[in-house]
From TrEMBL:
Signal peptide start-end: 1-24
Pfam family, one: CHU_C
InterPro entries referenced in this protein's UniProt entry, alphabetically: Ig-like_dom, T9SS_type_B
Full protein name: Ig-like domain-containing protein
Keywords carried by this UniProt record: Signal
Species the sequence originates in: Chitinophaga pinensis (strain ATCC 43595 / DSM 2588 / LMG 13176 / NBRC 15968 / NCIMB 11800 / UQM 2034)
Residues covered by the Ig-like domain: 735-829
Length: 1163
């Protein structure tokens, strides 16, 4: 019975006492904005700040016009979710997105290298419902939902409020490094669409996910649920779902993976790698993969890896089919792959069977897993490829190591007839029989439909009655639960390495096959379909292509015929090919010729080399031959078994000898005057191929590279030569000498050159000697002949040319330099330089001390070579370059110094950042700042009034009266002065804001504390209108006593000569604290009486305002009454009726206040 009356009030109060100690809250998202009040970012921030001891809820109530749905565009990462938070977008009153149950889209901009939609960081008890979490396309390292750190009890999606995640590189991502693993415990992922848009249709890559789910270090995970509407719909472009569990159970159930929402279309990305769902880890729990649809393009459908401690159950899955399980959907190498797992079952009963189809290779791969029971499953349309390399398996057992102490289970068919099949299997094996089925282009029959189970004997032998069937396929499971491959035909996998080829058209070819079973019957056939053998191996056949034809699943069942690949027996008759042959001649008179590089085809070959000359003599028995003399040679190769031969040749070995020099026609021509007119011609070198010539002179320098040496001067020359025979020549030629008739030689070693004085032309050239000199003359720089003998005197400094000739036509010219006497160098050891300043000619060079020679006179020249001074010191100089020339006592003049004088820049005033502050309210608050000055420091400043009075000596002028122009005077270190432009500082008055003061409520006899809330600089004046009472201070805070009744006060403030408007306020006197509240309101949205808001008289602060229904359930909670209650709960209007309200706070005396009452909601 529902409580009523006083009992209801008591229950309500008791509920309030319980709830009032909790910090749980509801934060409602009311805007699509990225940030600000009512945004999702704001709600997460507030929820995170509200503590984690109680669960907070983030609900959605965004106003949109149908059929529009909310889209929140996020430009930067949202705050990570902390513990005890529920983000529930299913509370939004909009329609759902597509076929999903999501109602709000969270659209994340993808303009960053790394970003996420939502993040859960080191948190527990976090739930996310009803969101479309999307981005504009896979970009960078992006995560739809990222789980980081140590987390527990995480729920993503649920009944009727799943999420949609697409466009991110990873849909759901929770990976911690193995070096610092962070455990994610009790993770639930249900009813989500991941890797496709909300329409559930297979999306383009940009709207899918590189990998939809990647989570590691799990301790318990539920992926899907216990019924179909809780399953996830998953697609990916490159990888599928990967779950790695360190502990706990793993359940992946009722999911559609690799298909669209209808289960009739699959993904088709040829970039996809590995498994569409993979589960791994060291957990010792139970791994359950059941009731899933796994299809689309992949390498493996389901993969279980490293489950060494736990057990697995794979049941009722459709792998490689569409939703009905009757037709193939997509393609993969294998449906299921087990690697390094301990034990488990795939199928088990007909009710738990898996359907596996559409594999172009083996349906089930078992690697290093010794207790995998594969029972009563349905397989069809597998091994569907035209590439045949080995036997086609249904179950492939790999890396089965006998050293582990366990024999591999097996089943073999030995005999069959119309009624019975017999065979052998692992002793005491549980045998399963299946009805064979073959797709149109499958390589073999699959065991599609389970028939029954029987046992093999203790010796492994078994017999099976066909019971009217024309074929059956078997499997065997040993006592430990390991299941064998099905009874498909098996042959040796090394046949290609055991083919014996034939030759010479003989029938000696063989194809050695070491094993063959589960083929009843079988035979060998050629390319034309002719039967050529009925033994395990094929013997004594001619060249051709042959294959095994095997009948599986019973006796001579045409539907289940299986073919090996064709194996080729080649005709390898002897053939000699010379394309790569190399013949080396016999060189330099030695028997060193050779023949190598011949290519031989054939088998069982014997080699025989012999010469062509009769009688033929055998000289070699290998594929190559060396040490041959010049002559012609043949080779014969013979197939010693098949009897045919091939002959190559004749091959010629030529003779190659050293080069020889012939001097019988040599001619020499001398070089007159030693000009390059000499030559040595008529030489002949007899040799092989291209002849190389090298002429060298007496110094060993190369002067020619041809047979004839021409255009050379007199000298001694020698020829070296070689050819391409590789044989060394006898040696270089004898030396050839070319003479130089009439050559003129001048001996400069005996010459004496006398220098000329600084002021007298007394230089000379004497002592020269010359041979073959007939005509001699001297010329100066102007080409004037100044002498005809070998000696020349009375010369000025300069260059002189000597020319000598004779009747041979020889001419020699040589130059001589007569130097001038070099005086002692005069240098400057000390001087004082003063640059001109202030743009005046007041520069100088003084105090000069010279060292070296003895000065006799001085000359100063400016940059225009004008003489400006003839004394040692330079004065009254302006900008410029000045050169000082000094003559010594020998009258030799030299440049002693070059001086540069430059006027420094005047100070420069920079007004780029000038700032002028006017004088406000005559407070002498004017200021001029921001001027920059560049000049020679130290700089001095003076601010001048219009009458030149100095008012400030700082660069920044402050405390300036308004109404004047001010000028800055700057003086630099040189005493140079510059002035700024006049700068005006105005006198202004401003409108002051009226003081802000709240009305004051006090109890009778209390002091009224009055405080200005918008405090400014100035003096505050408090007064009572109509009286002379007033108080003044600069703090804006007043304490007024002796107030006997409600009184009106006025207050203003003054800044300088400016006065603000007056603010009037009341001080009310009350006898007691009171709370007023309406007894009913109508929240119908008409703008009248829509908000329930109690009002407290004498209440200083509020701590709690809550409203509860008649059952004591809180429908509204806040920390003050300013907002009020709008009559809704979780975004929806409450029912009409009575509700209880409670208000708590502190009154003006500092005492707690608590008031309660009832309010009626009417519509």
């Amino acid at each position: 019975m529902k409580p009523t009356g006083v009992k209801l009030l008591l229950i309500t109060i008791s509920f309030f006492c319980v709830f009032s100690s909790a910090s749980a809250a509801i934060f409602t998202v009311t805007t699509q904005a990225d940030s600000g009040p009512g945004s999702l970012r704001d709600a997460i921030t507030k929820a995170n700040s509200n503590g984690t001891t109680e669960k907070d809820y983030i609900y959605f109530n965004i106003s949109v016009t149908s059929p529009l749905r909310p889209v929140i565009v996020i430009n930067s990462d949202l705050p990570a979710l902390s513990s005890n938070i529920v983000v529930d977008a299913s509370t939004q009153a909009s329609t759902v997105y597509g076929v999903s149950t999501a109602r709000v889209q969270l659209l994340r901009n993808n303009d960053q290298a790394t970003f996420y939609g939502l993040r859960i960081d080191n948190a527990s008890d976090v739930e996310i419902y009803g969101l479309v979490i999307a981005t504009g396309g896979v970009a960078g390292e992006s995560y739809g939902i990222q789980i980081s750190g140590t987390c527990s009890d995480i729920i993503i999606g649920g009944n009727a409020k799943g999420n949609v995640i697409y466009g991110f590189k990873f849909g759901i991502y929770g990976v911690a490094p193995n070096t610092d693993p962070k455990t994610i415990s009790n993770l639930t992922i249900q009813n989500n669409i991941i890797g496709m848009r909300e329409d559930g249709v297979i999306a383009a890559d940009a709207y899918s996910c590189y990998q939809p789910v990647l989570v590691t270090h799990l301790n318990g995970v539920t992926f899907g649920g216990n019924r179909a509407d809780l399953g996830n719909i998953i697609a990916g472009t490159t990888y599928g779902v990967y779950l790695s569990a360190d502990a706990g159970d793993v359940a992946a159930t009722f999911n559609k993976i690799g298909t669209d929402v209808s289960g009739t279309a699959g993904t088709a990305s040829y970039l996809f790698r590995d498994d569409y769902i993979a589960i791994a880890g060291a957990t010792n729990g139970i791994v359950t993969v059941a009731d899933n649809l796994i299809a689309g393009q992949s390498v493996y459908g389901l993969g279980l890896y490293g489950l060494r401690n736990g057990t697995f159950r794979v049941q009722r899955n459709k792998i490689g089919t569409e939703i009905t399980g009757t037709a193939v959907l997509g393609q993969r190498s294998s449906g299921i792959r087990l690697t390094d797992c301990m034990r488990g079952v795939i199928g088990g009963t007909l009710l738990d069977k898996n359907i596996i189809a559409g594999c172009y290779d083996v349906p089930v791969v078992v690697v290093s897993t010794y207790q995998a029971t594969i029972s009563q499953n349905e397989m069809f349309c597998n091994n569907n490829t035209s590439i045949v390399t080995g036997p086609a398996n249904s179950i492939q057992l790999l890396n089965w190591n006998p050293a582990d102490g366990k024999a591999k289970p097996f089943v073999r068919v030995l005999t069959c007839n119309a009624t019975t099949i017999t065979g052998i299997a692992t002793p005491n094996a549980k045998m399963e029989a299946f009805i064979p089925y073959r797709c149109g282009n499958g390589r073999k029959c699959d065991g599609r439909n389970y028939i029954e189970t029987f046992l093999a004997g203790a010796d492994g032998k078994w017999t099976y009655a066909l019971k009217g069937r024309d074929g059956v396929i078997f499997s065997a499971t040993d006592a430990t639960g390991a299941t064998s491959d099905y009874s498909n035909p098996v042959w040796s996998d090394d046949i290609e390495n055991n083919i014996v080829h034939t030759a010479c058209g003989e029938s000696t070819g063989r194809i050695i096959n070491k094993i063959l079973y589960n083929a009843t019957p079988f035979h060998w056939e050629d390319e034309n379909g002719n039967t050529v053998g009925t033994d395990t191996s094929l013997l004594n056949v001619p060249a051709g292509r042959y294959r095994l034809v095997m009948y599986g699943a019973g006796c001579n069942k045409p539907e289940c015929v299986e073919y090996s690949p064709f194996f080729e027996v080649k005709d390898i008759s002897p053939v000699i090919q010379t394309g790569t042959m190399t013949i080396i001649p016999a060189r330099c008179g030695v028997n060193n010729g050779s023949i190598t590089g011949l290519q031989f085809q054939g088998i069982n070959l014997k080699y025989n080399w012999y010469n062509v000359n009769m009688p033929a003599v055998s000289i070699g028995a290998g594929p190559t031959i060396n040490n041959l003399a010049p002559g012609n040679y043949n080779i014969t190769i013979t197939d010693t078994i098949n009897g045919c031969t091939a002959t190559g040749g004749p091959f010629e070995i030529s003779a190659v000898n050293a080069p020889v020099l012939n001097l019988s026609t040599v001619q020499l021509q001398n070089a007159v005057c030693s000009q390059p007119t000499g030559s040595i011609t008529g030489l002949v070198v007899n040799g092989t191929g291209t002849i190389t010539y090298t002429w060298t002179d007496a110094t060993g320098q190369t002067v020619g590279n041809t047979a004839q040496l021409t255009n050379v001067p007199a000298g001694t020359y020698t020829l070296a030569f070689s050819d391409q025979s590789g044989c060394p020549a006898a040696g270089p030629s004898q030396p050839f000498v070319i003479t130089a008739p009439g050559e003129i030689l001048i001996d400069r070693s005996t010459a004496i050159i006398g220098e000329a004085s600084c002021t007298v032309n007394d230089g000379s050239i004497t002592g020269l000697q010359a041979t073959n000199a007939e005509t001699t003359r001297w010329m100066d720089d102007n080409g004037t002949v100044i002498g005809t003998g070998l000696n020349l005197t009375n010369l000025a400094p300069g260059n002189y040319r000597l020319e000598i000739s004779n009747t041979y036509g020889c001419n020699v010219t040589t130059d001589f330099d007569v130097p001038q006497h070099e005086p002692d160098l005069i240098t400057v050891s000390q001087l004082n330089t003063q640059n001109p300043v202030c743009n005046l000619n007041n520069g100088s060079v003084t105090g000069m001390i010279l060292a070296g020679g003895t000065p006799a006179s001085y000359r100063w020249l400016n940059m225009n070579d004008m003489e400006v001074s003839t004394v040692k010191d330079l004065t009254n100089a302006g900008d410029g370059i000045y050169r000082l020339y000094v003559k010594d006592i020998e009258q030799c003049e030299q440049l002693v110094a070059t001086i540069i004088l430059k006027t420094p820049n005047l100070p420069r005033i920079d007004a780029t950042y000038l700032s002028i502050i006017d004088d406000v309210c005559s407070m002498t608050s004017g200021a001029i700042a921001g001027l920059g000055v560049n000049g020679k420091e130290p700089l001095s400043y003076a601010w001048l009034t219009p009458d030149s009075t100095v008012i400030s000596t700082s660069l920044q002028a402050q405390s300036l009266p308004g109404g004047y122009d001010y000028t800055l005077r700057v003086t630099d270190a040189y005493g140079c002065v510059v002035y700024s432009d006049p700068l005006p500082v105005n006198a202004v008055d401003i409108l002051l804001l009226a003081p802000t003061v709240k009305d004051v409520v006090i109890m009778k006899g209390m002091t009224a504390d009055i405080k200005v809330t918008n405090l400014h600089q100035g003096s505050y004046n408090l007064f009572r209108p109509g009286t002379e009472w007033s108080e003044t201070n600069t703090t804006g805070e007043f304490s007024v006593t002796d107030i006997t009744g409600s009184t009106t006060f006025g207050i203003n403030y003054q800044f300088g000569e400016c006065v603000s408007p007056t603010t009037y306020f009341k001080v009310d006197i009350i006898d007691a604290v009171k709370v007023y509240a309406p007894t009913a309101f109508s929240p119908n949205g008409d703008g009248h009486n829509d908000i329930f808001r109690p009002k407290g008289i004498g209440v200083a602060t509020y701590s709690l305002f809550t409203v509860m229904d008649r059952w004591g359930n809180s429908v509204y909670t806040a920390k003050d009454v300013s907002t009020g209650w709008d009559g809704t709960f979780r975004g929806k209007k409450v029912d009409a009726g009575a509700y209880v309200w409670l208000l708590q706070g502190i009154d003006i005396l500092g005492q707690p206040v608590q008031e309660k009452g009832a309010v009626l909601v009417v519509y």
